[in-house]
Amino acid sequence: MSNHISERRTPTAAEREARKVFRDTDAKAALSEYQRAQQALHANRERLKAERLAREAVSDQKAKT
User: Fold this and answer.
1) For residue range 19-55, what is the model confidence (pLDDT) as tens digits?
2) Measured between alpha carbons, how far is 45 from 51 in angstroms, rounded to an integer?
3) Given 5, 55, 64, 65, which residue has the most CB atoms within 10 angstroms?
4) Chain centre distance of CA 15
C-alpha cells in the first residue's frame, strides 16, 4: 500500500498569469458565442416579422377589393 499523499504546490507567477489569460480568453469566446446567437435570433425574428407583415398587407389588399 502506498502512503503517497497528494501534495498541493503553489502555482508560480507564470502559471497564474497563464491561467488568467486562458480564463479571460475562454470568457470572451463564450460571450461572443452568446452574442452571435442573440444576433441570429434577432435577425430571424425581424425576418419573420417582415414576412408576416407582408402577408397581412396582401390579405388586407384582397379583402378591400
Assistant:
1) 988 888 888 888 888 999 999 999 999 999 999 999 9
2) 10
3) 55
4) 28
Among residues 15, 13, 11, the alpha carbon closest in space to that of 23 is found at 15
d(C-alpha 54, C-alpha 48), whole Å: 10
* CA atoms within a 13 Å half-sphere pointing along the CA-CB vector of 32: 6
Alpha-helical runs (H) found in 1-12: none
Cβ neighbours for 26, distance < 8 A, ≥ 6 positions apart: none
- The number of helices, as runs of H, and strands, as runs of E, in the chain is 1, 0
